[in-house]
Amino acid sequence: MPDAQTQPKRHSLIEDAQGIAYGSFMAATGVLLLTHLGFVTGQTAGLALLISYATGWGFAPVFFVINLPFYWLGYKRLGLAFMLKSFAAVALMSVLVVLLPQGLEFGRVHPAIGAVLIGGLIGSALLALFRHGSSLGGIGILALHLQDATGFRAGWTQLIFDICIFATALLLRDWQLVAWSFLGALVLNLVIAINHRRDRYIV
């Protein structure tokens, strides 16, 4: 058996706080660039964007409300701490999406560069949140539960859901925007699938 020095250690409260703050900030920045380019994305954020584009409602409140039903699953399957951390991450990201445009604006961004940057930003955000026992709610909670229960990687679950979101997006957005958006989602999910490995990382 491993001795005390080789046992994995839990993150401290301060480490969790900075990880959740970092993840929420990077995700909000990615969403800001995403909406600047008129892209869509996957997971519950993608669903919230489609509703926002179709109705004119703000992304932040729609995203916050959509995630509410998933917290019960997070609590039942992954525990109170995970549920509370995820709620904090979603709430913080929703606030930042509203506040960031006051201090951050984008000019010309080529769609290809934007797609890869969005995938990298949100992918790194999700990795930080996952490593600190949190998520951005919704499909992320379901994906993590399936990974823990069956070994089916979280990234692949999210990719399947993304395909459904993008198929719907073709009815609401220009196909070229959807194609660039899919590139961003592909980068995001590859970041998660390759890097979020419980058999390689202990925290």
UniProtKB/TrEMBL annotation:
Signal peptide: none annotated. It comes from Paracoccus halophilus. InterPro entries: UPF0750_membrane, YitT. It is found in: Cell membrane. The keyword Oxidoreductase does not apply. This is Uncharacterized 5xTM membrane BCR, YitT family COG1284. Pfam families: YitT_membrane. Keywords: Cell membrane, Membrane, Transmembrane, Transmembrane helix. GO terms for cellular component: plasma membrane. The chain crosses the membrane at residues 20-39, 45-66, 78-100, 112-130, 151-171, 177-194. Coiled coil: none annotated. It is a multi-pass membrane protein. The keyword Aminoacyl-tRNA synthetase does not apply.
